[in-house]
Fold this protein.
Amino acid sequence: MKILQKALGIILILFFSNTNIVLSMDHIPTDDEINNISKDLYCPVCENIPLDACGTQACIQWRNTIGQLLSEGWSPDEIKTHFATQYGIQVLSEPPKTGFHALLWLLPLACLLTGLFILIKTFSSKKPSEHEHPSENKRHTNLNDYHINQIEKDLQQWK
């Protein structure tokens, strides 16, 4: 019975020691995993071209670096932060939503709300004709008639 227990113990030790070897193997990232991160980064050489669509040597090296960092266990956010730290935030497809860069997200919203407020105030105010007295309306009519008559007189002189 003791021999059976020892044999079973050795088999269990070997079995679990092999899983440690399998778990410690490097993860080989797929092209899709690399491209999911690359689409959120811009080429350091070309303007406004995502890293996943650019074929320059620099972009190929960056994609290789992304693959290496993924195989080392880095998360996508850590990789993006790494590139932003190394090359500046202009390599990110969208600016971070924290700190000073939060203004880039909030400023357009503030402008939109201010514009809507101005439009609402402008169109909801009373029309000028509602503010005028009837005597002022007569005066405007008389002025319009006066100008029309004056134009007709001037045209008569040119005939």
Remarks:
- The helical segments are 2-24, 31-38, 57-71, 76-87, 102-124, 128-131, 134-158.
- Residues 96-127 form one domain.
